[in-house]
């Protein structure tokens, strides 16, 4: 980590900042603060907004776990954000219908590959969309039309927000080397 982590059990003198710590802990549950939280808490108001936004992305959308986590894991692969991968790959693997081979295919699929099916057509459309958003920002019309064949407008907005949010997360993780994963060439699991 390029800046020291705040302590595992931070005690801020400012009551508002301490309330932010408690909100982050509440979202994390029994896991307590993770390295990402301990980096973000250098800027409590940023940590608070992050906690709220990412909490919504993770728990308040209509996307299936497998779709959401496939997008998140693909962002991690494309951005070499192995800390992100290590936290989200187990969530994807625990989703109904996902097998170890699907996880490996998602990890090793060449970028912008729109001809290979991973899991099923819906997940393959998500991966193509994630690749375009992450690598090119501009999404080709054919990629978007493919997505529209399976997902409704709400799901497309939620998926777009998820990919955008986790690109933000991965860039933060890699820039600050959160979890000390930048020297890894792939996942640790």
Description:
With 189 residues, this protein is mainly alpha-helical. The protein has 2 domains: 45 residues, no CATH class; 112 residues, AhpD-like, CATH 1.20.1290.10. The model has no long low-confidence stretch (mean pLDDT 95).
Descriptive keywords:
189 residues; mainly alpha; AhpD-like; globular
The unreliable regions are none
- Supply the number of helical segments: 9
- Overall SS class: mainly alpha
- What's the CATH topology name of the largest domain? AhpD-like
In CATH, what is the homologous superfamily of the largest domain? AhpD-like
Beta strand count = 0
CATH class of the largest domain: Mainly Alpha
Proportion of residues in β-strands: under 5%
Kindly summarize this structure in a few lines.
The protein is an all-alpha fold and 189 residues long. The chain contains nine helices and no strands.
């Amino acid at each position: 980590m390029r800046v020291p982590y705040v302590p595992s059990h931070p005690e801020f003198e400012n009551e508002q900042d301490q309330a932010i710590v408690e909100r982050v802990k509440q979202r994390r549950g029994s896991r307590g603060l993770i390295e990402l939280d301990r980096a973000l808490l250098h800027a409590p108001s940023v940590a608070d907004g992050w906690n709220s936004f990412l909490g919504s992305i993770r728990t308040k959308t209509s996307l299936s776990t497998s779709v959401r986590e496939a997008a998140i894991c693909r962002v991690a692969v494309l951005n070499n954000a192995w800390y992100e991968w290590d936290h989200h790959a187990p969530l994807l693997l625990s989703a109904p219908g996902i097998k170890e081979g699907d996880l490996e295919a998602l990890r090793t699929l060449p970028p912008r590959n729109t001809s290979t099916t991973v899991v099923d057509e819906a997940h393959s459309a998500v991966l193509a969309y994630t690749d375009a958003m992450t690598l090119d920002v501009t999404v080709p019309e054919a990629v978007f039309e493919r997505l529209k064949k399976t997902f409704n407008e709400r799901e497309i907005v939620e998926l777009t927000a998820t990919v955008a949010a986790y690109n933000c997360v991965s860039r933060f993780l890699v820039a600050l080397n959160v979890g000390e994963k930048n020297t890894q060439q792939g996942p640790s699991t």
